[in-house]
Design goal:
3 domains; Cytochrome Bc1 Complex, Chain D, domain 2; disordered C terminus; two-stranded antiparallel sheet
Length: 387
């Protein structure tokens, strides 16, 4: 005869399985928990440690009770008959708990407070499962000693499992032996149809879509709680732009003479002007008219014009002429702003301007449109000639 297994006996191997699963999850989340913004309080960790110690004391006490109830071993033999698979995880858990506490004590100094708190939670859960298993064993042994357990009692007939019950409620399927009760009163070429009901899961899904449509309609078009699709699109585009700007801001310090671009926004030009007046005004004049240094407003440049050459001159300086390399004092974005401000000074014709120095500079970007226009004009003339 098979012994009927209670729910408590099924809980014992489950508690042992929780040992590896819980520790695995705690270890997997250790790195993510360490990066959390709010640190865990030490008071909580101390409280969990005290609870763990208390549970260890309870486990040791229950172990003594089990040894007392076991006596010479006959009670253990009677109770463990047919239950070895259920009790073995509990006994293994006792040994694992002591090793786990020893390992935790050594690792406490190597992990963060928040990770330690989650480890203590996992340990407390494991210890609690061990206590529940021990209590179940104590109760079973007590019933065995009192003679209230019928080891040879016949096993009860198994009913439908939980999964079968849920599946039946979702589908309301008819058993094969009951299909005659739902046969429809017609036949087509020997084929008979069953009058099955609509599956409840399908009906619930349909009712849910109807309810959701009403909720969506009221929130979007009546109460204006949720944004419309157009508003949501604009919000997402604005958020995407903010994310892109934040991402590009990380590379603002990586500007050099090879990838620098001229800035045109008012904030950058104002910042470049402030830097110019602080560091460049003494040599080049307040309006770029020149002084000790050359005039910055005409078309002649001693070291090349354009944003790339101006940035390079500011960055590395001209030591033979007394201009220091500003790369040690200014950030790349500040040098970019100054170079952009200097480009704005071109053609301003300030009073007392210094005579031009250097070679006449023509930026390639300014001549490109003219060349393009000439090509377009030539192509237009050629097409007209063909006509």
């Amino acid at each position: 005869m098979k012994t009927m297994t209670s729910w408590k006996e099924r809980l014992l191997p489950l508690g042992a399985a929780m040992l590896s699963t819980t520790l695995g999850r705690a270890q997997a989340t250790d790195a993510a928990i360490t990066a959390a913004s709010a640190p865990a309080s030490m008071e909580t960790a101390y409280l969990l440690l005290a609870v763990a110690v208390l549970q260890v004391v309870i486990i040791l006490s229950l172990s003594g009770i089990l040894r007392t109830l076991g006596g010479t071993g006959t009670a253990w033999a009677d109770y463990l008959k047919g239950r070895r698979a259920a009790v073995l995880p509990v006994l293994l858990g006792l040994g694992a708990s002591s090793d786990l506490h020893a390992a935790t004590g050594m690792a406490t100094a190597l992990i963060s407070v928040q990770a330690l708190m989650w480890w203590l939670i996992a340990i407390n859960a494991i210890l609690f499962a061990i206590i529940v298993g021990q209590l179940s064993v104590v109760r079973g042994m007590a019933r065995t000693l009192s003679g209230n357990v019928d080891v040879d009692a016949p096993a009860a007939e198994e009913g439908p499992t939980f999964a079968d019950t849920i599946l039946q409620r979702l589908t309301r399927s008819v058993k094969v032996e009951q299909e005659k009760d739902v046969l429809m009163h017609h036949e087509y070429d020997g084929i008979r149809e069953l009058d099955n009901v609509l599956p409840p899961w399908w009906l619930w899904l349909f009712y849910g879509t109807v309810i959701w449509s009403v909720v969506f309609l009221l929130n979007v078009h009546v109460f204006d709680i949720w944004p419309t699709q157009e508003e949501e699109y604009r919000q997402e585009m604005a958020q995407a732009k903010a994310d892109v700007d934040a991402y590009l801001a990380q590379f603002a310090g990586m500007v050099d003479e090879t990838n620098v671009t001229a800035l045109t926004d008012d904030a950058s030009i104002a910042g470049g002007r402030a830097t110019y007046e602080a560091y460049c005004k003494a040599c080049h004049g307040g309006a770029g008219e020149g002084g000790v240094g050359p005039n910055l407003t005409d078309d002649h440049w001693k070291h090349g014009g354009g944003i790339h050459n101006i940035f390079k001159t500011i960055k590395y300086g001209v030591p033979e002429k007394g201009m220091i390399a500003w790369k040690t004092q200014l950030k790349p974005v500040e040098m970019q702003a100054v170079a952009s401000y200097i480009l704005k000074l071109h053609g301003s014709n300030p009073p007392n301007a210094k005579a031009p120095e250097g070679e006449l500079w023509k930026d390639a970007t300014t001549t490109a449109p003219a060349d393009s226009a000439a090509v377009v004009a030539a192509d237009s003339i050629a097409v007209a000639a063909l006509k």
